[in-house]
Amino acid sequence: MNKIARSLLRKITMALLLGVGAFALTACGGSHSTTGETDNSNLSVATNPSGLFFNSVGSAIASVVSEGSSVNMTVRPYVGATQWLPLLNDNQVNFGVSEEPNVYWAVNGEGMFNEAYQNIRSIASVGMLNMSGYTVREDSGIEKLSDLKGKRIAAGYNGEWIIQYLLEAQLASVGLTSDDVTLVTIADNNAGMDALREGRVDAVFTGNPSQGAFLEMDNAIGIKALNYADVTPGELDQKKDELIKQMQEFVPSLEPVVVNGGIIKEDTVIYRFGVTLVSSTHVSEEAVYDITKTLWEQHEELPKIFGWFEGLTPEDMFNPVPSAPYHDGAIKYFKEEGIWTDEAEQHHQELINSFD
Questions:
Q1: pTM
Q2: Among 144, 277, 341, 349, which residue carries the largest CB count within 10 Å?
Q3: Cβ count near 198 (within 10 Å)
Q4: pLDDT by residue (tens digit) across 35-56?
Q5: Burial of 90 (0-12, 13-18, 19+ CB in 10 A)
Q6: What residues are paired with 98 via a beta bridge?
Q7: How many other CB atoms sit within 10 Å of the CB of residue 190?
Q8: Handedness of CA 93, 98, 103, 109 (dihedral sign)
């Protein structure tokens, strides 16, 4: 796809997503205002639709916050972060759980976003998400990424642009582009898995290798992920810096990781990025301070609701160099607890000064 076509598609897709978001907001209601700060009576957290990973993450956070603080947090599902991040910026939703790269693109007006959404603020990093990427049937005869040349590849994914960039990065890592494969447009992950099961595509995108839907498909037909860049786990230490540089040309903050678990039955080089809780300048310092304090002090409650949080520590939750500046309420808590660092302050000021 050339740059002109991609730009046009981005604008059309964003217009459609924002139209859907406006309808959902009107239909669902919620506590927001068009000006000033929100109150704490009923604040919303944007996630993906019910049953998907980000919905589970957001639901766990909302539960812990609502039970442990003065803030009542309600989950509000959207198609994806590319839909709700502009709404967050405009105070039509109060919080959200997103991939760190999407936050970077939104704040800087890059990727899917045609303008910079500079009211977005970080609160906490809530974990690292492993992504399997291109996945094939075990009986396909496809052993490495470079074997995908000439194969039928699932594409589209209903405007989830981060998936498109992740897949482009994988192809580029072995010297391929979309011109070297046959793209088959599908609506979403479920449609992609159906297409692989039915033999209509040779490779699909899969996310977290331990996600239930992917485990079910593995049990049904047997699937496997492919080493990123055809680099074996034994070669990763030597090539890691090179891979990170190549990955981040496509997706900011992306990094390689060796995983063995879920649908991945032997050590395999895949990729991961951070998952982050964000808010906006429209939400009061008091509310964000209360939420930050609650999550730090009650983080052990999160894995009781959603197992992915297992092992999360307060140290993991503070990223000194987030994609969006920290909210004043979060900074207040960090300073009180001695978490805030000179590195974090310098990065924060650089981000603020870079805004128009």
A1: 0.84
A2: 277
A3: 9
A4: 345 566 689 999 988 878 899 9
A5: middle
A6: 276
A7: 13
A8: negative
The total number of residues written for the chain in this structure: 356
| Ranges of H-type helices in the chain | 3-28, 53-68, 81-89, 100-108, 161-173, 189-197, 212-221, 236-248, 285-297, 302-305, 314-317, 328-336, 342-354
- CA dihedral of residues 62, 66, 70, 75 (deg, nearest 10): 40
Of the CA atoms within 13 Å of residue 173, those in its CB half-sphere come to: 34
pLDDT tens-place string over residues 294-327 = 999 999 999 999 999 999 999 999 999 999 999 9
Cα distances (Å, whole numbers) of residue 122 to 42, 98, 210, 242, 264: 20, 11, 27, 29, 32
Q: What are phi and psi of 103, to 5 degrees?
A: -65, -45
Residue appearing with tokens 């190549």 = 246
Q: Are 87 and 19 in contact (CB under 8 A)?
A: no
Evaluate whether 278 touches 103 at the Cβ level (below 8 Å): yes
What 3-state class would DSSP assign to 73?
strand
